[in-house]
Design goal:
Cytochrome Bc1 Complex, Chain D, domain 2, about 140 residues, mainly alpha
Length: about 140
């Protein structure tokens, strides 16, 4: 691991906050930023960006479920309440411009239910969801 990466993770782990939004940011940095980067941009195509696209697919029936079942989320060493907060942070921080107007924050119960169902092929489901989103948008524009 590079010195700057070690320094980054040590600094992030030392942050302390009473605010759940700040706690969610710290948890994001500790559990997600190693692959998706601190700004959520990822390293496509191997590590998808968390910016923009999740805000679009969350409006699909399977989209919310997908975001909680991807291996990085479902297997994170966070309890259900903390994971809900991290995903909500990700949605509002990186996707505020693409979130549907009726977006409802993820709940601890929703996370618990989703985590129990293993997602065998996240890339395939992501591609299917994106096709559904684009088809819906095309229909709305007609």
């Amino acid at each position: 691991m590079h010195r700057s990466s070690v320094t980054f993770f040590l600094a992030a782990s030392l942050l302390v906050s009473a605010n759940s939004s700040a706690d969610a940011r710290v948890d994001y940095l500790l559990h997600c930023a190693g692959c998706h980067l601190p700004d959520g941009s990822g390293v496509p195509p191997d590590m998808p960006s968390l910016r923009g696209d999740p805000g679009k697919i969350v409006s699909l029936p399977q989209g919310r479920d997908y975001l909680l079942r991807v291996p990085g989320a479902s297997q994170a060493l966070l309890d259900n309440a903390d994971l809900a907060q991290v995903v909500n942070y990700m949605m509002t921080e990186f996707n505020r411009d693409s979130l549907p107007a009726d977006f409802k924050p993820f709940t601890e119960k929703e996370v618990a239910e989703a985590r129990g169902r293993v997602l065998a092929d996240p890339a395939k489901l992501r591609a299917e969801l994106w096709e559904q989103y684009e088809a819906r948008e095309t229909t709305l524009l007609q």
